[in-house]
Amino acid sequence: AYKNSLITITKCELSQYGGRISVYVSVYPEHGLKGALSMLTRHGAEIAEFLQQKQRNRRKPFLIFEPDVSA
Fold first, then answer.
1. What does the buried/exposed string (b/e) look like for 52-66 if buried means 16 or more CB atoms within 10 Å of the residue's CB?
2. Global pTM?
3. Are 66 and 23 in contact, with CB atoms under 8 Å apart?
4. Three-state SS for 3?
5. Are strands 62-67 and 20-28 parallel, antiparallel or unpaired?
6. Cα(60)–Cα(51) distance, rounded to whole angstroms?
7. Whose C-alpha in 1, 42, 48, 56 is 20 to 30 A from the C-alpha of 17?
């Protein structure tokens, strides 16, 4: 169902030392949330490698994808 969903990153929080990043996402329609989080988690290593290339300190972050329930 996530293939027909709009996935938006709404917020990112870095841990104190930058090794872990919590990525909050919203998904529309909401019934695609589970599939979208599963897909993001599966591709998390690829996304982390991309971020590592863009960072100054070159540390590969550990990404945690979570639903944004604030809205």
1. eeeeeeeeebebebe
2. 0.84
3. yes
4. helix
5. parallel
6. 7
7. 42
